[in-house]
Amino acid sequence: MERLQKVIAHAGVASRRKAEELIKEGRVTVNGQTVTELGVKVGSSDKIEVNGLKLEREEPVYFMLYKPRGVISAAEDDKGRKVVTDFFDDVPQRLYPIGRLDYDTSGLILITNDGEFAHKLMHPKYEIDKTYAAKLKGIPSKELLRKLEKGIMLDHKKTAPARAKMLSIDKRKQTCIVQLTIHEGRNRQVRRMFEAIGHDVLKLKREQYSFLHIEGMRPGDRRELSPHEVKRLRAIADHGKSAF
């Protein structure tokens, strides 16, 4: 279910703000009933009319993007910075990212126009695994990595169980690469988890989202998800999955 004004905006009829005005003015009906209050939610089977004309909804599309560093995980930016939807100028649908990656973090992010699908995947109760490769300053001990796996305190709340694996060590430069798999989505969580054990993150890349992987892709590359991949993600979102 999505808010009515959001559905109208995604159909290209009007901006979100203008859609809200149309609703307040009584120019929108849902299943034949006039709606004048904001906050009403509609599903895919609801019949919506704006000014007496049936709303034609966009065909849902699903993409994965290898987000480069220095790109905002948003559909637009008031500061004029590059955003993830800039890589989809040839796609007519109004797209937005599922979740976010920090400005300085690269890697896999999903892009869609399906709000219900996005909402399910972002809901914390479904515990969808996200795997990162972090280049760290210094080399954490096995004990510190186990501490990450068990959970550490961030903002007075313990992080959920995780998986940590040392991938490589550069003793001369005193750096290493650690793979970390989590299923939460707190703000800058991966960086803050490593900082909490005394190791700053020099580079961070999300390599995997659930079963999807960016192997073979380069920053800026994108591809459309197959119907089977979308169906599989829906199943994970519907039933929940934790690898731990």
UniProtKB/TrEMBL annotation:
This is Pseudouridine synthase. One of its GO terms (molecular function) is RNA binding. Transmembrane segments: none annotated. The lineage of its organism: Bacteria, Bacillati, Bacillota, Bacilli, Bacillales. SUPFAM superfamilies: Alpha-L RNA-binding motif (SSF55174), Pseudouridine synthase (SSF55120). It holds the Pfam family S4. The keyword Protein biosynthesis does not apply. Keywords: Isomerase, RNA-binding. Belongs to the pseudouridine synthase RsuA family. One of its GO terms (biological process) is enzyme-directed rRNA pseudouridine synthesis. Residues 2-63 form the RNA-binding S4 domain. It comes from Bacillus safensis. SMART domains: S4. The keyword Isomerase applies. Its EC number is 5.4.99.-. GO terms for cellular component: cytosol.
